Amino acid sequence: METREHIYLDNAASSWPKPESVIRAVELTLREAAANPGRSGHSLSVEAARIISDARSEAAAFFGVADPLRIVFTKNATESLNIVINGLLRPGDHVITSRMEHNSVMRPLNAARERGISISSVRCSRTGELDPDDVRKAVTKDTRLVVLTHASNVTGTIMPVAEVGAITRGEGIPFCVDAAQSAGCLPIDVDAMNIDLLAFTGHKALYGPQGTGGLFIRGGLEAEISPLVMGGTGSASEHEEQPLFMPDKYESGTPNTAGIAGLLEGGRFVSSQGIASIRDHEMALASVLLEGLDGIPGVRVHGPAEPEKRIPVVSFTVDGMDASEVAYRLDDGCGIMVRPGLHCAPSAHRTLGTFPGGTVRFGFGFFNTAEQVRTALEAVSSIVNKP
Amino acid sequence: MNRAGRSVILFESVSSALHAEKILKAGGIAHKIIPVPKHISSDCGVCIRVEGEYLEQAGRALEGKVRVLGVRQLPEAKGR
Ligand SMILES: Cc1ncc(COP(=O)(O)O)c(C=O)c1O
Q: Is pLDDT at A38 greater than 90 in this prediction?
């Protein structure tokens, strides 16, 4: 392989590179504390369990959750969303969602339809924005759940989560937020925003390893949500029925201890840098990109015009050129890695009018630089000018 | 309650026991995580051992924060 510098602009899919502290924590855990956490009572087992306990406290503090035992670790946001959608909804229930959702919400919801659950998908604007009042209007006497992404993985559009939370709280409807893109990127306080269920993933803006994620479940709701997976928890072993207490009800089987050790360090990394300062840096990059793309004829940027209305995710199309071809030429010719296509979110692309062709998506992270954005802009410009 | 002897505080799960450990640590209350003694339960988990003189203080610190399943006094002498 040639030694050309690679420019990684696909942080919305998975952040990369990872902070050194994350890499070290994974390695150290495998070297020194890879016993089965808490199953055996001996000191190495307790050490492994303590890593997970520390990560639980870190995650709780991160999202303004007072009791760490309300945090369940899962393998990603997808599993967390499946726990909620499959575990909470019963035949006859009604769910409200938006037309900007990822397939990790849409696929389990559409499967739930087969079980007699009805769905309202609230319309969004061509820039992916949602009017909270449309959520209020969609509420029926059977509405059992509102599930909404916090930020679109296609356009970066930030959704009015706190406003919707005020509505669901007033109506007494559980509110589930898909924070796959936003956790680590935007401040989240489950109480201030009235979030009852928060699904997050570890490998994006929390800078942890893949295969880590979690779910916050507000007190009492666990009585109404069946677990997706059942089995050994290291607790209540004399019983052959699944324990009903948090977090064990949803944490069967040996967890990804090394991964969770990495997630803990990823969370600490974000906290020590500060979400606000990371966001300032990333939005400065996004603004340079948005301005630059605006000046290239034939390039159309999707999503809100105001940078502050998005996370650092920018999608664009080039007139007369396939998104996949633009992405291929960025990678092959310039070593710039982005993600073309539908981004697992066909519904969002229909909303934008970019279905089925899709868009080219740039997603910035902490480690990107203004220099890289300038190089990317030059590359886009030359691709557009030499079709 | 015998203030002289040692007791163990029992929890629902390892997660609860380790959360309790953090709370006791933060409160400066002496304690030790140990495997649940065989005569109390055949479960594979851990519990928290405290000296009698700290038991009340520990109970107060955990109240409303972690569910305690029970407190058992340990047999005298023959300590570990
Ligand atoms: C908005 C959104 N929701 C959910 C997911 C699913 O996350 P994961 O693949 O980590 O489960 C993603 C990322 O792919 C996403 O961008």
A: no
Length of chain A: 387
> Which listed CATH number (3.40.50.620, 3.40.718.10, 3.40.50.720, 3.90.1150.10) goes with A274-385?
3.90.1150.10
Mean pLDDT along residues B8-35: 95
Q: Please choose from A11, A78, A177, A343 the residue to mutate so as to test ligand 1's pocket, defined by most ligand atoms within 8 A of CB.
A: A78
Compute and round to an integer the Cα radius of gyration of chain A. 21
Tens of pLDDT, residue by residue over A200-224, are 999 999 999 999 999 999 999 999 9
CA A184 – CA A202 distance, rounded (Å): 9
pLDDT of residue A184: 98
Is A334 within 8 Å of A185 (Cβ atoms)? no
Rounded to whole angstroms, the Cα distance separating A306 from A298 reads 20
Chain B residues inside the 8 Å CB shell of A53? 15, 18-19, 21-22
Ligand 1 neighbourhood includes A102 CB (under 6 angstroms): yes
In chain B, domain spans? 3-73
- The CATH architecture one would assign to domain A20-273 is 3-Layer(aba) Sandwich (3.40)
Q: What does the H/E/C string look like for A299-346? A: EEEECCCCHHHECCEEEEEECCECHHHHHHHHHHHHCEECEEECCCCH
Distances (CA, A) of A56 to A41, A67, A292: 19, 9, 41
Contact A268, A58 (CB under 8 A): yes
In degrees, rounded to 5, the angle at the alpha carbon of residue A174 between the alpha carbons of residues A171 and A176 is 130
| Interface ipTM | 0.85
d(CA A314, CA A360): 8
Report whether residue A201 contacts ligand 1, using a CB cutoff of 6 Å.
yes
The answer to whether A100 and A159 have CB atoms below 8 angstroms apart is yes
Which residue's CA is the closest to the ligand 1 atom numbered 12?
Answer: A180
Backbone angles phi, psi at B58, to 5 degrees: -65, -45
Q: State mean pLDDT over A175-187.
A: 98
Q: Are A69 and B16 in contact (CB under 8 A)?
A: yes
d(CA A358, CA A240): 49
| CA A80 from centre of chain | 11
Torsion angles phi and psi, residue A214, rounded to 5: -170, 180
Domain B3-73 fold: Alpha-Beta Plaits (3.30.70)
CB distance A301 to A359 below 8 Å: no
